[in-house]
């Protein structure tokens, strides 16, 4: 079955960096676009970045220059490098993919707290 497992979150001071990872299984990882989405308390979900199977990335305007999405197709792993973190980056971060069956699949999320 499809599994997405995020890791790498934690408590970080403003200005610091974190690298999130998402281990994917249960589908042919190389065939699908992958996404990072976050949800802060009391706020709507926010799409951060997308990377296609060729490694071409797109970012929300507010993330450009601070966040970098990448993937390792050999390891079935998605990553998000986050630099210059701000208190407003505090959220639960999810990796998400849309598969052949028409469904969106989400990981359980990893908490990032910038304080």
What does this protein structure show overall?
There is one protein chain. The chain is an all-beta fold. The chain contains no helices and eleven strands. The strands form two sheets. Strands 2, 4, 5, 6, 9, 10 and 11 form a seven-stranded mixed sheet that branches. Strand 4 and strand 5 form a beta hairpin. It starts with a strand and ends with a strand. The mean pLDDT is 96.
Question: Looking at the structure, what is the overall shape?
Answer: globular
Cα-to-Cα separation, first versus last residue: 37 Å
Oligomeric form: single chain
Number of helices: 0
Proportion of beta-strand residues: over 45%
Largest sheet: 7 strands, mixed
The run of helices and strands is: EEEEEEEEEEE
Average of pLDDT: 96
Model regions low in confidence, pLDDT < 50 over at least 5 residues: none
Structural class: mainly beta
Strands, count: 11
Radius of gyration: 13 Å
Give the helix proportion (percent range).
under 10%
Provide a compact summary of the structure:
With 115 residues, this protein is an all-beta fold. 0% of the residues lie in helices and 51% in strands. The protein starts with a strand and ends with a strand.
Outline the secondary-structure elements.
Elements: E1 3-7, E2 10-12, E3 18-25, E4 34-39, E5 46-51, E6 57-59, E7 67-72, E8 77-82, E9 91-98, E10 104-106, E11 110-114
Parallel strand pairs: 2-11
Antiparallel strand pairs: 1-3, 3-8, 4-5, 4-9, 5-6, 7-8, 9-10, 9-11
